[in-house]
Design brief:
The protein is an alpha+beta fold and about 100 residues long. It has three helices and nine strands; from the N terminus they run E-E-E-E-E-H-E-E-E-H-E-H. The protein has a single domain, classed as NE0471-like N-terminal domain (NE0471 N-terminal domain-like, 2-Layer Sandwich), CATH 3.30.2020. The strands form three sheets. Strands 3-4-5-9 form a four-stranded antiparallel β-sheet. The radius of gyration is 16 Å and the shape is globular. The mean pLDDT is about 90.
Length: about 100
């Protein structure tokens, strides 16, 4: 049980998911290390035609990704993506290359 602001909740709260490292790969993919130490690859191509991400179609801009307060950002913070989206839709590296 967890108590937050005098309200009791069943179970333990989910830890806040943050990005520890991000590296752009070929074909508009990101290699992402999470605060859980899991590593996933996220395919950004399906999002490139969304209005918020149109500037990232320029590969130079896309490759300039960096982390700001645990969130991947581009263009001085004008574009970002939630770590939860990267985690949920990313593919675990060990699933791509089993040991």
């Amino acid at each position: 049980m967890t108590i937050i602001n005098d309200i009791a909740y069943a179970g333990e709260p989910e830890p806040i998911l943050k990005i520890r490292a991000v590296r752009p790969l070929d074909d508009y993919r990101l290699l992402v290390r999470f605060s859980t130490d899991e590593i996933k690859i996220f395919d950004f191509k399906p999002l490139l035609y969304e209005p918020a991400f149109l500037p990232l179609q320029d590969k130079t801009v896309f490759d300039a990704v960096y982390i700001d307060y645990g969130v991947p950002v581009w263009r001085d913070g004008e574009n970002d993506i939630a770590p939860e989206k990267l985690y949920t839709d990313g593919v675990a590296v060990d699933q791509l290359h089993p040991v």
